[in-house]
Amino acid sequence: MKIALITPYYYPFVRGNAVTVRRIARSLVRSGCRTEVYSLDSRSASGIARRMADAPPRLIHAFHGWLGGRVARAIAAQRGIPYIVTLTGTDVYEALTDIRREETFAVLHDAARLVAFDPCIRERLGSPALQEKTVIIPQGVETPGEERRIPEDLIFSGGSFTFLLPAGLRPIKQVLFPLAPLAEIYRYEPRVRLLLAGPVIDPAYAARVMGELERHPFAHYLGGIDHGAIGCLYRRADAVLNTSLFEGGMANSILEAMSLARPVLVADIEGNRAIVREGVTGLLYRTEAEFREKAERLITDPVLARQLGHEAKRLVLEEFSPEREVSAYLELYREVVG
Questions:
Q1: 146 in helix, strand or coil?
Q2: What letters, b where the CB count within 10 A reaches 16 and e where it falls short, cover 34-49?
Q3: Which of 62, 91, 86 has its CA nearest to residue 74?
Q4: How far apart are CA 221 and CA 173, in angstroms?
Q5: Structural domain total, the chain
Q6: Do 33 and 111 reside in the same domain of the chain?
Q7: pTM (2 decimals)?
Q8: What is the pLDDT of residues 120-133, one digit of tens each?
Q9: Domain assignment of residue 260, given as a range
Q10: Quick one: which of 306, 337, 270 has its CA closest to 76?
């Protein structure tokens, strides 16, 4: 079976969509599918349509209802090729609530099936017709390797307790949130460090972030870290953070950290609650005070940190394997193409 994957982002390999699509594409190839990835950060929509006309697939699998989905819908209308859409986050939380709403709904209504990472995303669709054709396929996770190492003496000081926040610089990631509560801890616990790793997505927001970081000597920005090096960061971090306003069901970064038995401290939002069980596989916070209190617990209670990491790794191995993920997609593909 030949599958065309349309993704908003594929280059460089630092964004969540790129991580997801590369993993699924590899798994499909290992399962015997022929796959071709079309990325909107390297090809125009018209270029993708022309290429697909020359080598038509049996099925189009688009990621993000507004970005990848619109291209898939246009090609489907021209060529009669069925398409499915995996909902990735901003399509549900933003595109379905602003001026893109009508066209995004049209994409979802015309899709053969929809995929959500967690039932909370399906519920947010609102429309019973869309909910009925939505399949839940949790993200898989591949444990990051260390293909490329980062000089540790540049980012980790001896005896420090390092919080790692892997996130692109854009408002929905709220990367400034940890600064105030960690600054309070830093006053009496000077070994605290915060490392921020991720690409600049919103330049105006990134400029604000850089200005704030200059006021906090314990916090450092590492830039966009290639996925081949992120494993080094996870392994050396003492805890991994997620401070997002929302997630599209579950964050790749948190699943990867959990696969390496890193304790996680994450915002109490729908996507994070899908994988983090309070006090068992990680810690959830709602306010700055809660964040500070739970960050202190991780710093002062290494037994708790190890237990959380152990349970997190067990959960990921049991429930979020790439094999389970691709098996579910293959079943869905066969259903759609008959």
A1: coil
A2: ebebbbbeebebeebb
A3: 62
A4: 15
A5: 2
A6: yes
A7: 0.88
A8: 899 999 899 999 99
A9: 152-319
A10: 337
